[in-house]
DNA-3-methyladenine glycosylase I
Amino acid sequence: MTNQHDSLPRCPWAGDDTLYRHYHDHEWGRPVVDDTRLFEKICLEGFQSGLSWITILRKRDRFREIFHGFSIERVARMDERDVERLLADPGIIRHRGKIEATINNAARTLEVQREFGSLAAYVWRFEPKPEHRPDDLSWQAIRALAQTDASRALSKDLRKRGFAFVGPTTCYAFMQAMGLVNDHVEGCFCRDEVEAERQKLARPG
């Protein structure tokens, strides 16, 4: 689990790619309550469907450019002309359904914000209780944990509200990345750091 480039023990999935290791060390699993970042992650997890996260991560800067920094209001105003323009952009994943889902999900997010005050207040309602988390935090166990009761509940509610590309596996990846759970494996140097951040976090709503 120790990376060959330094002596820090990491989750095995971080590998040796510098970009991936930076994402693992500084972003993944650290709790997020900012609506823009949460919306961005919902969208990018949708784009990841059927692909690897490193593919999305390498294109993230371009995604941010063409989706206006993932401003929820601006993305919600995008239309069919924007869809056609983005389908010609080689810097992103050119998938009509995923592009249209991002625009749709922005509009649905505005509805969630009106109802709950923020996207964060809505999302964090689905944080699983400690007793519902697995005791085994080995790499093999975490790797096998593709979805949970909490991610299935979030997925079901999002789809009921009209969101797209938000299946239970996608929702669990979102929950892992945004710190609703701490799935850094035992022995990873980030695990205790992330847990401390989660303990100090003032849950929204």
About this structure: The chain has a mean pLDDT of 93.
